[in-house]
Amino acid sequence: MASKILGRISAVAAACVALPLVLTGVAGAHGYTTNVPSRAYLCKTGAVSNCGPIQWEPQSVEGPKGFPARGPGDGRICAGGLGQFAQLDDPRGGSWPARKVSSGQNLTFSWTLTAPHATTSFRYFITRDGWNPAAPLTRAALDPAPFYTVNFNGARPGSTVTHTGKLPARTGRHLILAVWDIADTGNAFYQCGDVTF
Fold this sequence. Notes:
Layout: H1 2-23, E1 30-35, H2 39-45, E2 62-64, E3 99-100, E4 106-115, E5 119-126, E6 148-151, E7 160-166, E8 173-182, E9 187-196
Parallel strand pairs: 3-9
Antiparallel strand pairs: 1-4, 2-9, 4-7, 5-6, 5-8, 8-9
């Protein structure tokens, strides 16, 4: 009897020690873009079907920070490198719904944060003219530097974040990669939004 009780106590103690180790990689912060509407958000709202589990958790596209030097691998950027969200990396033949925008336009970017966290920055990258919208996103398809950055210097944002930045000159269909860099973890959140100039 005593050995069974000790065995149960040991199992509970082991679980208590293991749980923080399992959760160490989780930032505790989650968010997605609603403007430009991200692929994850379009799946959440049902505007796009056959999305897999991202439709229930558009806020969970989290991967290593440090983009473009580090972060998710090429072809896996829109899903943050997470296999369960691979549908976000599928270009669907270039048929994702795209927001109409204009070169040089001041565009308001909006995030919904389901669990705000200390933030380094919000950064926005865009594809180069001549990129292939029917292929998964790669670093070579993007301008290497963000066209717009909002620094937060470790501050914790509210549950919604909006800021307005000027779009670069482009023509045709493009993709905007929004990156929310978390200040006190090794992770960032990645959101891909399709646009047409």
